[in-house]
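Per your request, structure below.
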């Protein structure tokens, strides 16, 4: 187990640019909260947006280029390799998110947007479903797809736009809540879900967890040809 975690610590899942961008958004977010603690949504959305790209780290694309050959031939169990890759994929975004949450608690009088039920659901979905889908895609493509769905739905106007705006305003209901949570988690940031709304979002969260299990299984069973890394 240590070998897998040590490998990704040294090899790094993310580029320095992405890590620096996340750190910068965290600092900017804390500055926003220091000036106006009620603007937690403005601080959290950019972080979650970058997190969407970070978790889409493209395991198979890197593995098939030979970047993980040393790890895959080290004897480390594939399941451990997959879990370590997930952990390092989500860790930077989660760390900055928790930093904002701590800042919100210190600078505000009560838990705000970062700790709202909608925000936590969005962060959980991005951290699970985002990584799982990104395993089989080129790096960052999962984040691009999420943004494309959001902009397409908003740009279409009519019922789809009204539905998304209603969810962002905390007025959504029924199974559409779960669909929007999966398709456009950014809209849930700062939303305080009522008890009946939470029940409709739970299946989406469960789908995120199950998708992680599917991705781990796919990595365990994959036939990856070993080659020298460029």
């Amino acid at each position: 187990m240590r070998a897998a975690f040590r490998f990704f610590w040294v090899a790094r899942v993310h580029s320095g640019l992405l890590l620096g961008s996340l750190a910068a958004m965290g600092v900017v977010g804390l500055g926003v909260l220091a000036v106006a603690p009620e603007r937690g949504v403005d601080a959290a959305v950019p972080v979650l947006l970058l997190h969407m790209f970070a978790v889409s780290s493209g395991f198979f694309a890197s593995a098939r280029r030979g970047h993980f050959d040393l790890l895959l031939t080290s004897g480390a169990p594939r399941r451990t390799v997959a879990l370590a890759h997930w952990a390092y994929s989500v860790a930077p975004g989660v760390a900055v998110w928790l930093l904002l949450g701590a800042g919100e608690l210190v600078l505000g009088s009560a838990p705000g947007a970062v700790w709202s039920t909608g925000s936590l659901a969005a962060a959980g979905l991005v951290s699970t479903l985002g990584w799982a889908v990104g395993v089989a895609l080129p790096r960052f493509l999962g984040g691009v797809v999420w943004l494309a769905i959001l902009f397409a739905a908003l740009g279409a106007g009519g019922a789809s736009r009204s539905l998304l705006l209603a969810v962002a305003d905390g007025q959504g209901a029924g199974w559409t809540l779960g669909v929007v949570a999966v398709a456009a988690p950014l809209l849930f940031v700062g939303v305080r879900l009522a008890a009946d709304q939470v029940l409709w979002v739970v299946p989406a969260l469960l789908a995120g967890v199950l998708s992680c299990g599917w991705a781990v299984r796919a990595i365990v069973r994959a036939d990856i040809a070993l080659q020298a890394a460029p």
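The first helix runs from residue 2 to 11.

Regards,
D.
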